[in-house]
Amino acid sequence: xxxxxxxxxxxxxxxxxxxxxxxxxxxxxxxxxxxxxxxxxxxxxxxxxxxxxxxxxxxxxxxxxxxxxxxxxxxxxxxxxxxxxxxxxxxxxxxxxxxxxxxxxxxxxxxxxxxxxxxxxxxxxxxxxxxxxxxxxxxxxxxxxxxxxxxxx
Length: 153
Known about the structure:
The chain is of the alpha/beta class. It has helices spanning 15-29, 58-74, 92-103, 117-123, 126-133, and strands at 4-8, 32-46, 49-54, 80-88, 107-112, 138-142. It is built from five helices and six strands; from the N terminus they run E-H-E-E-H-E-H-E-H-H-E.
């Protein structure tokens, strides 16, 4: 079974499904869990006057992690910690992979959300990039993999 699980979450409702699956695995195997939320930043160039635009505040990012940690604890996970990272938008997969390496994770869990149509050609997918580049197994939880109200054992 897995001993060290990194779970990457965002602020979407689908994170509940990701956390439910993570809790089941962690409780069954007694695994330690690190919750990671990556706060994305956009760097803009305003004619020589650059700047950074945050998609969310640092406080909002911390709330996502605290909520996820609380959810996992309520689901019976006893060894859980939370982390936030800041990175530019296109670098989210690297932030996840760096955390997986530093935590020595033997499993990475994240949602498998897809962009539709043309957007997927330009934006790519965090889950695809992580899955193809990870040195440990990756569990992708598709949207609606389980009803959000499914109790965590």
